[in-house]
Amino acid sequence: MKNIMKDSLKQKAQQLLTRDGLFTAAQHLVPQQKISEVAGRLAASQNPIVKKAFVNTFAKAYGITLEEYARQNLADFKSFNDFFTRELAEEARPIDDTEQGIVSPADGIISQIGYIEQGQILQAKGRDYAVGHLLADTNNQDGNYYEGGSFATVYLAPSNYHRVHMPFDGTLIETRYVPGTLFSVNNVTAQNVPDLFARNERLVCIFETQYGRAAVVLVGAMIVAGIETVATGKIDRSDSIQTLEHNLSLKKGDELGRFYLGSTAIVVMPKSAGVEWSQDMEHGSVVQMGQLLGVANKA
Protein backbone atom coordinates (compact mmCIF):
# COMPACT_ATOMS: atom_id res chain seq x y z
CA MET A 1 0.00 0.00 0.00
CA LYS A 2 2.85 2.39 0.88
CA ASN A 3 4.47 1.72 -2.48
CA ILE A 4 1.18 2.44 -4.29
CA MET A 5 0.76 5.75 -2.44
CA LYS A 6 4.37 6.64 -3.10
CA ASP A 7 4.00 5.92 -6.83
CA SER A 8 0.78 7.96 -6.93
CA LEU A 9 2.43 10.97 -5.27
CA LYS A 10 5.41 10.65 -7.58
CA GLN A 11 3.13 10.61 -10.63
CA LYS A 12 1.29 13.74 -9.44
CA ALA A 13 4.59 15.50 -8.81
CA GLN A 14 5.77 14.62 -12.32
CA GLN A 15 2.53 16.00 -13.77
CA LEU A 16 2.99 19.29 -11.91
CA LEU A 17 6.53 19.62 -13.22
CA THR A 18 5.38 19.59 -16.84
CA ARG A 19 4.84 22.93 -18.57
CA ASP A 20 1.06 22.41 -18.62
CA GLY A 21 1.08 21.33 -14.99
CA LEU A 22 3.01 24.42 -13.91
CA PHE A 23 0.65 26.66 -15.91
CA THR A 24 -2.37 25.11 -14.19
CA ALA A 25 -0.80 25.08 -10.72
CA ALA A 26 0.13 28.76 -11.00
CA GLN A 27 -3.53 29.66 -11.51
CA HIS A 28 -4.37 28.18 -8.11
CA LEU A 29 -1.84 30.50 -6.47
CA VAL A 30 -2.49 33.89 -8.06
CA PRO A 31 -5.25 36.26 -6.82
CA GLN A 32 -7.62 35.64 -9.73
CA GLN A 33 -10.28 38.20 -8.78
CA LYS A 34 -7.81 40.98 -8.01
CA ILE A 35 -5.92 40.46 -11.28
CA SER A 36 -9.19 40.57 -13.21
CA GLU A 37 -10.31 43.73 -11.37
CA VAL A 38 -7.04 45.53 -12.18
CA ALA A 39 -7.21 44.36 -15.80
CA GLY A 40 -10.79 45.62 -15.95
CA ARG A 41 -9.88 49.10 -14.79
CA LEU A 42 -7.05 49.37 -17.30
CA ALA A 43 -9.20 47.98 -20.11
CA ALA A 44 -11.93 50.54 -19.39
CA SER A 45 -9.52 53.49 -19.25
CA GLN A 46 -10.10 56.19 -21.85
CA ASN A 47 -6.75 57.80 -21.16
CA PRO A 48 -5.35 58.17 -24.70
CA ILE A 49 -1.87 56.93 -23.75
CA VAL A 50 -3.18 53.86 -21.90
CA LYS A 51 -5.75 53.11 -24.59
CA LYS A 52 -3.29 53.40 -27.47
CA ALA A 53 -0.67 51.27 -25.73
CA PHE A 54 -3.12 48.47 -24.96
CA VAL A 55 -4.99 48.48 -28.27
CA ASN A 56 -1.96 48.72 -30.54
CA THR A 57 0.08 46.16 -28.60
CA PHE A 58 -2.82 43.69 -28.46
CA ALA A 59 -3.68 44.08 -32.14
CA LYS A 60 -0.05 43.51 -33.14
CA ALA A 61 0.45 40.55 -30.79
CA TYR A 62 -2.63 38.70 -32.09
CA GLY A 63 -2.49 39.81 -35.73
CA ILE A 64 -5.86 41.56 -35.54
CA THR A 65 -6.97 43.46 -38.62
CA LEU A 66 -10.23 45.36 -39.02
CA GLU A 67 -11.41 44.41 -42.52
CA GLU A 68 -14.50 42.64 -41.16
CA TYR A 69 -15.40 45.30 -38.62
CA ALA A 70 -17.57 48.40 -38.68
CA ARG A 71 -14.69 50.64 -37.56
CA GLN A 72 -11.56 50.42 -39.69
CA ASN A 73 -9.05 52.41 -37.63
CA LEU A 74 -7.55 51.50 -34.24
CA ALA A 75 -7.75 55.16 -33.23
CA ASP A 76 -11.56 55.06 -33.53
CA PHE A 77 -12.00 53.08 -30.30
CA LYS A 78 -12.61 54.87 -26.98
CA SER A 79 -10.90 52.28 -24.79
CA PHE A 80 -9.43 48.81 -24.92
CA ASN A 81 -12.86 47.43 -23.90
CA ASP A 82 -14.44 49.29 -26.81
CA PHE A 83 -11.85 47.75 -29.15
CA PHE A 84 -12.17 44.27 -27.68
CA THR A 85 -15.96 44.21 -28.08
CA ARG A 86 -15.76 45.78 -31.55
CA GLU A 87 -18.81 45.33 -33.74
CA LEU A 88 -18.75 43.53 -37.07
CA ALA A 89 -19.50 45.24 -40.35
CA GLU A 90 -22.98 44.61 -41.69
CA GLU A 91 -23.29 41.21 -43.40
CA ALA A 92 -19.85 40.12 -42.17
CA ARG A 93 -21.44 37.05 -40.54
CA PRO A 94 -24.44 35.70 -42.50
CA ILE A 95 -26.71 33.65 -40.25
CA ASP A 96 -27.35 30.15 -41.61
CA ASP A 97 -31.05 29.83 -42.46
CA THR A 98 -31.38 26.03 -42.36
CA GLU A 99 -34.81 25.16 -40.98
CA GLN A 100 -34.48 24.34 -37.26
CA GLY A 101 -30.74 24.86 -37.55
CA ILE A 102 -28.71 25.59 -34.43
CA VAL A 103 -25.89 28.03 -35.15
CA SER A 104 -22.67 28.92 -33.41
CA PRO A 105 -23.18 31.69 -30.84
CA ALA A 106 -19.68 33.05 -31.40
CA ASP A 107 -16.49 33.01 -33.40
CA GLY A 108 -14.06 30.52 -31.90
CA ILE A 109 -13.07 26.89 -31.65
CA ILE A 110 -15.26 23.94 -30.71
CA SER A 111 -13.88 22.83 -27.37
CA GLN A 112 -16.33 19.92 -27.13
CA ILE A 113 -19.65 19.02 -28.72
CA GLY A 114 -21.94 16.10 -28.07
CA TYR A 115 -24.70 14.72 -25.86
CA ILE A 116 -25.56 14.78 -22.18
CA GLU A 117 -25.31 11.33 -20.63
CA GLN A 118 -26.06 10.54 -16.99
CA GLY A 119 -26.37 14.27 -16.39
CA GLN A 120 -22.77 14.88 -17.50
CA ILE A 121 -21.20 17.16 -20.12
CA LEU A 122 -17.81 16.36 -21.62
CA GLN A 123 -15.19 18.96 -20.67
CA ALA A 124 -12.08 17.29 -22.08
CA LYS A 125 -10.92 13.74 -22.71
CA GLY A 126 -11.48 11.86 -19.47
CA ARG A 127 -13.20 14.79 -17.73
CA ASP A 128 -16.94 15.39 -17.33
CA TYR A 129 -18.99 17.79 -15.23
CA ALA A 130 -22.64 17.95 -14.15
CA VAL A 131 -25.06 19.98 -16.27
CA GLY A 132 -27.02 20.86 -13.13
CA HIS A 133 -23.85 22.29 -11.57
CA LEU A 134 -23.09 24.30 -14.70
CA LEU A 135 -26.57 25.84 -14.69
CA ALA A 136 -26.51 26.50 -10.92
CA ASP A 137 -29.60 24.35 -10.49
CA THR A 138 -30.62 25.03 -6.88
CA ASN A 139 -33.79 22.93 -7.21
CA ASN A 140 -31.92 19.86 -8.51
CA GLN A 141 -34.15 19.63 -11.59
CA ASP A 142 -31.93 20.56 -14.54
CA GLY A 143 -29.87 17.38 -14.35
CA ASN A 144 -32.99 15.34 -15.08
CA TYR A 145 -34.51 17.79 -17.56
CA TYR A 146 -31.43 17.88 -19.81
CA GLU A 147 -30.67 14.16 -19.60
CA GLY A 148 -30.22 12.88 -23.15
CA GLY A 149 -29.95 16.44 -24.45
CA SER A 150 -27.04 18.02 -26.29
CA PHE A 151 -24.36 20.65 -25.82
CA ALA A 152 -21.78 22.63 -27.75
CA THR A 153 -18.87 24.45 -26.10
CA VAL A 154 -17.23 27.28 -28.06
CA TYR A 155 -13.93 28.75 -26.85
CA LEU A 156 -13.25 32.35 -27.86
CA ALA A 157 -9.54 33.05 -28.36
CA PRO A 158 -8.21 36.57 -27.65
CA SER A 159 -8.16 37.46 -31.36
CA ASN A 160 -11.80 36.49 -31.96
CA TYR A 161 -14.90 38.66 -32.28
CA HIS A 162 -16.19 38.76 -28.70
CA ARG A 163 -19.92 39.27 -28.94
CA VAL A 164 -22.21 36.31 -28.31
CA HIS A 165 -25.33 35.81 -30.42
CA MET A 166 -28.44 33.67 -30.31
CA PRO A 167 -27.99 30.10 -31.62
CA PHE A 168 -31.78 29.70 -31.99
CA ASP A 169 -35.02 31.69 -31.71
CA GLY A 170 -36.11 32.01 -28.10
CA THR A 171 -37.53 34.10 -25.28
CA LEU A 172 -35.10 34.91 -22.49
CA ILE A 173 -36.96 34.15 -19.26
CA GLU A 174 -34.18 34.07 -16.68
CA THR A 175 -30.55 34.95 -16.06
CA ARG A 176 -28.47 33.56 -13.22
CA TYR A 177 -25.19 35.19 -12.29
CA VAL A 178 -23.04 32.58 -10.56
CA PRO A 179 -19.86 33.71 -8.74
CA GLY A 180 -16.86 31.44 -8.98
CA THR A 181 -13.20 31.04 -9.79
CA LEU A 182 -11.53 32.63 -12.80
CA PHE A 183 -9.30 29.93 -14.23
CA SER A 184 -8.18 30.27 -17.81
CA VAL A 185 -10.53 28.31 -20.10
CA ASN A 186 -8.10 27.22 -22.78
CA ASN A 187 -7.52 23.60 -23.74
CA VAL A 188 -4.67 23.08 -21.26
CA THR A 189 -6.75 24.17 -18.29
CA ALA A 190 -9.79 22.23 -19.49
CA GLN A 191 -7.68 19.09 -19.44
CA ASN A 192 -6.24 19.75 -16.00
CA VAL A 193 -8.86 21.51 -13.83
CA PRO A 194 -11.86 19.37 -12.77
CA ASP A 195 -15.32 20.91 -13.28
CA LEU A 196 -13.72 23.97 -14.89
CA PHE A 197 -16.83 25.45 -16.53
CA ALA A 198 -19.03 24.56 -13.57
CA ARG A 199 -16.75 26.30 -11.05
CA ASN A 200 -15.76 29.46 -12.95
CA GLU A 201 -17.81 32.65 -12.73
CA ARG A 202 -20.61 32.53 -15.29
CA LEU A 203 -23.92 33.95 -16.47
CA VAL A 204 -26.61 31.37 -17.25
CA CYS A 205 -29.27 32.50 -19.75
CA ILE A 206 -32.43 30.37 -19.84
CA PHE A 207 -34.78 30.47 -22.85
CA GLU A 208 -38.19 29.15 -23.76
CA THR A 209 -37.94 27.82 -27.32
CA GLN A 210 -39.96 25.73 -29.72
CA TYR A 211 -37.81 22.81 -28.55
CA GLY A 212 -38.39 23.30 -24.83
CA ARG A 213 -36.19 25.07 -22.30
CA ALA A 214 -32.66 25.75 -23.59
CA ALA A 215 -29.66 27.60 -22.20
CA VAL A 216 -26.65 29.63 -23.27
CA VAL A 217 -23.95 29.95 -20.61
CA LEU A 218 -21.34 32.72 -20.76
CA VAL A 219 -18.34 31.52 -18.76
CA GLY A 220 -15.85 33.97 -17.30
CA ALA A 221 -12.11 33.35 -17.10
CA MET A 222 -8.78 34.74 -15.94
CA ILE A 223 -8.54 38.48 -16.71
CA VAL A 224 -12.14 38.56 -18.00
CA ALA A 225 -13.12 42.01 -16.82
CA GLY A 226 -16.85 41.47 -17.18
CA ILE A 227 -19.84 39.89 -18.86
CA GLU A 228 -22.72 41.85 -20.34
CA THR A 229 -26.05 40.93 -21.92
CA VAL A 230 -28.70 42.91 -23.76
CA ALA A 231 -31.12 42.16 -20.91
CA THR A 232 -28.94 42.86 -17.88
CA GLY A 233 -26.28 45.32 -18.96
CA LYS A 234 -22.83 44.71 -17.51
CA ILE A 235 -23.03 42.28 -14.62
CA ASP A 236 -21.94 43.48 -11.18
CA ARG A 237 -19.87 40.83 -9.45
CA SER A 238 -21.15 39.54 -6.13
CA ASP A 239 -20.52 36.69 -3.69
CA SER A 240 -23.89 35.01 -4.21
CA ILE A 241 -26.06 33.73 -7.06
CA GLN A 242 -28.19 36.52 -8.51
CA THR A 243 -31.33 35.54 -10.45
CA LEU A 244 -33.38 37.88 -12.63
CA GLU A 245 -36.58 37.20 -14.57
CA HIS A 246 -37.05 38.47 -18.12
CA ASN A 247 -39.46 38.34 -21.03
CA LEU A 248 -37.30 39.22 -24.03
CA SER A 249 -37.83 37.62 -27.43
CA LEU A 250 -34.72 37.20 -29.57
CA LYS A 251 -34.19 35.80 -33.04
CA LYS A 252 -31.41 33.47 -34.15
CA GLY A 253 -28.36 35.64 -34.80
CA ASP A 254 -29.46 38.52 -32.54
CA GLU A 255 -26.81 39.77 -30.15
CA LEU A 256 -27.18 38.26 -26.68
CA GLY A 257 -24.13 39.59 -24.87
CA ARG A 258 -20.40 40.17 -24.89
CA PHE A 259 -17.21 39.40 -22.98
CA TYR A 260 -14.76 42.04 -21.80
CA LEU A 261 -11.74 39.86 -22.58
CA GLY A 262 -12.07 36.29 -23.81
CA SER A 263 -13.90 33.23 -22.59
CA THR A 264 -16.36 30.46 -23.51
CA ALA A 265 -20.00 30.12 -24.54
CA ILE A 266 -21.88 26.85 -23.95
CA VAL A 267 -25.16 25.97 -25.68
CA VAL A 268 -27.34 23.44 -23.82
CA MET A 269 -30.35 21.87 -25.58
CA PRO A 270 -33.00 19.52 -24.17
CA LYS A 271 -33.56 15.98 -25.41
CA SER A 272 -36.88 17.13 -26.89
CA ALA A 273 -34.94 19.19 -29.45
CA GLY A 274 -33.44 16.01 -30.92
CA VAL A 275 -30.34 17.87 -32.09
CA GLU A 276 -28.06 16.12 -34.55
CA TRP A 277 -24.71 17.85 -34.66
CA SER A 278 -23.04 18.16 -38.06
CA GLN A 279 -20.40 15.51 -38.71
CA ASP A 280 -17.73 18.13 -39.38
CA MET A 281 -18.27 19.69 -35.95
CA GLU A 282 -15.81 18.19 -33.49
CA HIS A 283 -13.15 19.09 -30.95
CA GLY A 284 -10.85 21.67 -32.55
CA SER A 285 -13.19 22.77 -35.35
CA VAL A 286 -12.92 26.49 -36.12
CA VAL A 287 -16.35 28.16 -36.30
CA GLN A 288 -17.82 31.58 -36.93
CA MET A 289 -20.87 33.14 -35.37
CA GLY A 290 -23.95 32.15 -37.37
CA GLN A 291 -22.38 29.03 -38.84
CA LEU A 292 -24.53 25.89 -38.73
CA LEU A 293 -23.60 23.52 -35.89
CA GLY A 294 -26.47 21.08 -36.21
CA VAL A 295 -30.18 20.63 -36.81
CA ALA A 296 -32.98 20.09 -34.29
CA ASN A 297 -35.48 17.38 -35.13
CA LYS A 298 -38.32 18.16 -32.76
CA ALA A 299 -41.10 15.60 -33.11
From TrEMBL:
<keyword id="KW-0594">Phospholipid biosynthesis</keyword>
<dbReference type="GO" id="GO:0005886">
    <property type="term" value="C:plasma membrane"/>
</dbReference>
<comment type="subunit">
    <text>Heterodimer of a large membrane-associated beta subunit and a small pyruvoyl-containing alpha subunit.</text>
</comment>
<protein>
    <recommendedName>
        <fullName>Phosphatidylserine decarboxylase proenzyme</fullName>
        <ecNumber>4.1.1.65</ecNumber>
    </recommendedName>
</protein>
<comment type="function">
    <text>Catalyzes the formation of phosphatidylethanolamine (PtdEtn) from phosphatidylserine (PtdSer).</text>
</comment>
<feature type="active site" description="Charge relay system; for autoendoproteolytic cleavage activity">
    <location>
        <position position="165"/>
    </location>
</feature>
<feature type="active site" description="Charge relay system; for autoendoproteolytic cleavage activity">
    <location>
        <position position="107"/>
    </location>
</feature>
<keyword id="KW-0670">Pyruvate</keyword>
<feature type="active site" description="Charge relay system; for autoendoproteolytic cleavage activity">
    <location>
        <position position="263"/>
    </location>
</feature>
<keyword id="KW-0210">Decarboxylase</keyword>
<comment type="pathway">
    <text>Lipid metabolism.</text>
</comment>
<keyword id="KW-0444">Lipid biosynthesis</keyword>
<dbReference type="GO" id="GO:0006646">
    <property type="term" value="P:phosphatidylethanolamine biosynthetic process"/>
</dbReference>
<dbReference type="GO" id="GO:0004609">
    <property type="term" value="F:phosphatidylserine decarboxylase activity"/>
</dbReference>
<keyword id="KW-0456">Lyase</keyword>
<keyword id="KW-0865">Zymogen</keyword>
<keyword id="KW-0443">Lipid metabolism</keyword>
<keyword id="KW-1208">Phospholipid metabolism</keyword>
<dbReference type="InterPro" id="IPR003817">
    <property type="entry name" value="PS_Dcarbxylase"/>
</dbReference>
<feature type="active site" description="Schiff-base intermediate with substrate; via pyruvic acid; for decarboxylase activity">
    <location>
        <position position="263"/>
    </location>
</feature>
<dbReference type="InterPro" id="IPR033177">
    <property type="entry name" value="PSD-B"/>
</dbReference>
<keyword id="KW-1003">Cell membrane</keyword>
<dbReference type="InterPro" id="IPR033178">
    <property type="entry name" value="PSD_type1_pro"/>
</dbReference>
<feature type="site" description="Cleavage (non-hydrolytic); by autocatalysis">
    <location>
        <begin position="262"/>
        <end position="263"/>
    </location>
</feature>
<comment type="pathway">
    <text>Phospholipid metabolism; phosphatidylethanolamine biosynthesis; phosphatidylethanolamine from CDP-diacylglycerol: step 2/2.</text>
</comment>
<feature type="modified residue" description="Pyruvic acid (Ser); by autocatalysis">
    <location>
        <position position="263"/>
    </location>
</feature>
<keyword id="KW-0472">Membrane</keyword>
<dbReference type="Pfam" id="PF02666">
    <property type="entry name" value="PS_Dcarbxylase"/>
</dbReference>
<comment type="similarity">
    <text>Belongs to the phosphatidylserine decarboxylase family. PSD-B subfamily. Prokaryotic type I sub-subfamily.</text>
</comment>
